[in-house]
Amino acid sequence: MATETDAPTAPAPSPRRRRLARRLVAAVVALALLAVAAVAGVGWYFSGVATEVEHGREYDLTILDAGNGTVTLPRDPGTLRPGVWGLEWSGGRAILGPVTAATATTVTRRIDRAVQGTPVKGARAVIDHWVYAGDPRTALGLEFEQVTYPSKLGPMPAWLLPGAGLNRPWVIAVHGHNADRAETFRAMRAVRRTGLPMLSIAYRNDTGAPASPDGRNNLGHTEWNEVASAIAYARSRGATSVILYGWSMGGAMVMRTLRAVPEGVQGVVLDSPVMDWGATLDKQGADRGLPSPVTWAAKQILQLRTGIDLKDFDQRRYAARLKVPVLMYTVTEDEMVDNAPSEEFARRAPRGLVTHVSMKSDHTDGWNVDPRGYEAALDTFLRKTARL
User: Fold this and answer.
1) Residue 240: how many CB atoms within 10 A of its CB?
2) What's the CA gap between 242 and 191, in Å, rounded?
3) Please, what sign has the CA dihedral across residues 144, 150, 152, 156?
4) How far is 268 from 244, CA to CA, in rounded Å?
5) What distances in angstroms separate CA 327 from CA 49, 212, 272, one per listed residue?
6) Which of 157, 172, 164 has its CA nearest to residue 234?
7) CA neighbor of 60 nearest in space, from 118, 126, 106, 146
8) Domains along the chain?
9) 3-state SS string over the chain?
10) How many CA within 13 A on the CB side of residue 172?
11) Tens digit of pLDDT at every position of the chain (388 positions)
12) Distance of CA 238 to the CA centre of its chain
């Protein structure tokens, strides 16, 4: 008689196989941890680069020839670009005019004015898109007062150009990331012609200004407080209102100030503004060849290190609430800032409040390629906004 037998069972894994499985799991976990650590490490480094305070200038090209009122430089987009530019070398400076000749490897430009020294063949130099250096008097022949305005970190230096009198709207000029007040020189003559006073401010971590407690650039997250302090100073000196004018990160700062301290702000001018730090950091990460997970990690680390909420600096979220007129310059070849948020901000803002001027140039260089066009738009906006 047949009897039922137990079904055959699989043999238990041998001790050798169990050890191999454990080793494989450990290896996978170790690789995963290494990958996470690598991403975190690169992210930490990138977040540090984004917040580093650096005011040095690298002489990144060599003067190939000079004489007869011209200078010959290596050909690249910066030396070939039309317009007005500065050329700086150790101990010297000149203002460059149009391109007079070009080959496949060289660009020759006219020297419109030798400000200091004479360029010589073989000297290391740099194209200076701020064009001018010094102070408003030495650079542009404009009278000014060296002032300080109170801030949470102590007295901050500023240049005050008095205009036609202090009891009227003031323009408060705010330079960008790791720049200085010289960035604002290019707008000074146009502002002066309107008769409006102009206060060009230094802020934390600038040369000659108090340092931040952490010694880092916080992308406007803390620096906007100086803009608010400058507004209070302007009002104490007779300003009836203010027009905020920001370049690059300075644009992020003035937009943050506009939301926090809107009282008395009559208008805003933005030049190549950072309208969304998240998008701009994504662009800069991609330009450096960083995988998107690394850039994502860098942004999270950045927020932990500085306390900044990147979403708070996405100005598109606030465009519909805009109540003052904005003149916004963007450039079509911006290598620093993602322009898509600026364009979207202009579309989302209430109709008629944003005047958007697009220029064919690189970051904050709209004035350089077309000074007349830039200044004409600025003059029209300032006169209309200040009701001159």
Assistant:
1) 14
2) 13
3) positive
4) 5
5) 30, 30, 11
6) 172
7) 126
8) 61-128 (2.40.10), 136-278+308-385 (3.40.50.1820)
9) CCCCCCCCCCCCCCHHHHHHHHHHHHHHHHHHHHHHHHHHHHHHHHHHHHHCCCCCCCCCEECCEEECCEEEEECCHHHHCCCCEEEEECCEEEEEEEEEEECCCEEEEEEEEEEECCCCCCCEEEEECCCCCCCHHHHHCCCCEEEEECCCCCCEEEEEECCCCCCCCEEEEECCCCCCHHHHHHHHHHHHHHCCCEEEECCCCCCCCCCCCCCCCCCCCCCHHHHHHHHHHHHHCCCCCEEEEEECHHHHHHHHHHHHCCCCEEEEEEECCCCEHHHHHHHHHHHCCCCHHHHHHHHHHHHHHHCCCHHHHEHHHHHHHCCCCEEEEEECCCCCCCCHHHHHHHHHCCCCCEEEEEECCCCCCHHHHCHHHHHHHHHHHHHHHCCC
10) 34
11) 444 445 455 555 555 555 444 444 434 333 333 444 545 566 666 667 778 888 878 999 999 999 999 999 999 999 999 999 999 999 999 999 999 999 999 999 999 999 999 999 999 999 999 999 999 999 999 999 999 999 999 999 999 999 999 999 999 999 999 999 999 999 999 999 999 999 999 999 999 999 999 999 999 999 999 999 999 999 999 999 999 999 999 999 999 999 999 999 999 999 999 999 999 999 998 998 888 888 888 888 889 888 899 999 999 999 999 999 999 999 999 999 999 999 999 999 999 999 999 999 999 999 999 999 999 999 999 999 999 8
12) 30
Q: Which of 75, 49, 53, 81 is nearest to 62 (CA)?
A: 75
Distances, alpha carbon 111 to alpha carbons 98, 303, 368, in Å? 8, 46, 15
**133: its two tokens:** 């250096």
Q: Give this prediction's pTM.
A: 0.89
Pairing relationship of beta strands 354-359 and 326-331 according to DSSP bridges:
parallel
> Tell me, what amino acid is at 80?
L
